[in-house]
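Readers outside the structure-tokenisation community will struggle with the description of the input data as it stands. What matters is that the chain and its backbone geometry are given together, residue for residue. For illustration, here is how one protein appears when written out as sequence plus structure tokens:

…
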Amino acid sequence: MFNPKENLLDQQLAVSGLEMQADPFTIVSAGLSIAGGIFGSSQASKQNKAAKRAQKKQEEAARQAAAAANKYNAEAFEVEKENYFNNREFQREIQLDSWRYNQQIQDIQYQAVVERYSKSVQNTENQLAFNSIAAIDAYQAEQDALNEIYTEDAFNRQGDLVDRLQQEGQAALGQAGVSRNKAVQSRLAGIGRNTAINDASLASSVEQSQRNMRQIAVQKYGADLAARAEMMIRPQAIPDIPQPKEAPERVFIAPMKVTPTYIPPAVQQNTLAPIVQGFTSVNWSNVFGD
């Protein structure tokens, strides 16, 4: 079996059964070629080991980089979600505060309208009451005026009656005959005319008083209509302001896992090639002779 640590020339000669017949320089040259091959093989082996170590270091660095990136991405993802929900809650509170404020303003405005309406109703009721009192006073004044006319007419009629009785008495005590009768008739005719005039005046006064009463009623009706027209319309309750609606929640996608960067296998050199090249570079014919 071939063993590179032993004397390669001795082994070769032992195997071939040949005796060394070359000069020492040729033998040394062959030995150097073989030794160079062995050294090249040793260097290739060292380089292979160094490349393997470098590969492992690169793979470890790639794994650490991937782990660090995954950790950062996971933390950043959680922070992003926390920031989103915090901001969402903050915006929700702002919307609710604005809704409460606007609802409060609307309630205050409606309450103010209700109060103005109540005041308007009170003013209208006061005006209607004033109109009624004024109409009653006007009715009473007209009735008093009519009563005075009735009283005056009664006095006038009583005076006419007394005058008629006096005229009739005086005529009865005077001369009898045609002259007396004519005098009585003349005086009675005058009293009758006065009575007719008084009747007509009383009827006219009563009719005027009735017209005045109707005018008072019309004026009161018009004043009542004007008072009611100035009264505010009953306010209708305003619907509450709708509460703000929340937008749909954002859909989060977890970050993709980072895998270690692919590290290509270390290039391995052939450790036997330098030895084989060392052997093949020796001119064995010069070493052993023809």
